[in-house]
Write a structure and sequence with these properties.
This protein has about 120 residues and is an all-alpha fold. It has one domain: Recoverin, domain 1, CATH 1.10.238. It is about 50% helix and about 0% strand. The chain contains six helices and no strands. Helix 1 crosses helix 4, helix 1 runs antiparallel to helix 6 and helix 3 packs antiparallel against helix 4. The chain is globular and about 40 Å long. The protein binds calcium ion. Calcium ion binds next to loops.
Length: about 120
Amino acid sequence: MREQTYSFDFENSEGRRRHKTGGLCIAGTFAEIKAFAFEHFDKLDKDGDGFISRDELKASFEDQNTSQEARSYIFFLLRRLDEIQAAYKEEWGSGDGISRADIQEYFKTWIEKVQK
Ligand SMILES: [Ca+2]
């Protein structure tokens, strides 16, 4: 499989996708973001409906108590929200935002790609 590279895109645009080559790309980064999302899922999912919505991510991002490191992970999730929430089709209806299954599927695919 072709090597995939990914770079963080700090432009504030909704839904626009940019896949660059030669950017920051390490499987470790994806594993870290995934670990972060799982570890903080309940905290990020403020209303506890099992989905982290865009508004919930934004609220955590803007929270004064959110660390810089956490912000960078949340930023990634915000930028990729549409892709991540489409990663797994929930049988019980699609809520607004990212479910644990979405995270699992999305990062599994990415981590497999970058490790090949
Ligand atoms: Ca929620």
